């Protein structure tokens, strides 16, 4: 059962793909939805105005980074994360489990929680399920994530089972600590690595606890697309159909198409902006590297099918020039284009589901993405 004022409406289906709408404290989110990642209360190189213009409705911020700097109490004192970063729309905050996995040499995990050494100043910090939930309340996140241990890949079945069961214990404690407020939701996180039986056990445990939505964690961390999608399918089979399903940390355009086809509703990934800062652009014909010399005299936009400001006003030659001269505008323009591309993809998939044409539209996108870029004549 959803928290008061927090709702998920399933509007249409096309095969297993779902078209829905999430209503929360700071607005609505049309699904399938891609959330740009604003780890430290900023989506790198982009203003909130750029995100809204691209079509983004919800963004992600990270509990781990914000608790260390500037601190949850500072953000709370300044009116919450929405006011702090000038983003009026919905925000989801990751509890920090993924970051704690990456700090494996600096952390100690017990039944109580995680003690880790800050990557900023070396100070020892403790994070418990209750503490993670309270920090996200202070941040004023529309969607709070339970604290989990993101199981590393690869892991043996025994290691994955131990990790998953600890996360389920933490999920129960997170649920108990969550303060219900109108329009605010709490999501559980399903773990179990690539083992279908463990994923089923985790999904059933979370369903019994009763969350407003469920995230699928521990994927897109090196297992490959085929294994990821197979594990996702095995997990979704055991999740509630009347609540959002969120695949964490994925991914490429074809990852998203494949996951939507299976019935996932929400996604996030640093790929659009990280790629944009390093010269990689996403287009309907696949990826391009704008640093390549062949773009130096190319008057065309990044993508002739894109209406974003970068494509409307700037040539490949100019953006290539910016990158060759280490001008920050290059990364800004390419990041803005990539975010716009991802939002266009999700809008196209939503429209296809509404028209019950998802399979055909998805196949068309896969085919054009595989064609490869065409050089200028």
Walk me through the structure.
With 377 residues, this protein is α/β, with parallel strands linked by helices. It has two domains: 7-41 and 60-74 and 88-260, TIM Barrel; 276-369, no CATH class. Helix content is 42%, strand content 19%. The protein contains 15 helices and 16 strands. It has helices spanning 48-54, 63-68, 72-77, 81-85, 97-102, 129-139, 157-177, 196-209, 225-236, 253-262, 271-277, 309-313, 316-324, 328-354, 358-369, and strands spanning 7-14, 17-24, 27-31, 33-36, 59-62, 91-94, 107-109, 114-117, 124-127, 143-145, 185-190, 213-216, 245-247, 266-269, 280-283, 286-289. The strands form four sheets. Strands 4-14-13-12-11-10-6-5 form an eight-stranded parallel beta sheet. The chain has a three-stranded antiparallel beta sheet with strand order 1-2-3. Strands 7-8-9 form a three-stranded antiparallel beta sheet. α8 (196-209) packs across α9 (225-236) and α10 runs antiparallel to α15 (358-369). It is globular. The model has no long low-confidence stretch (mean pLDDT 96).
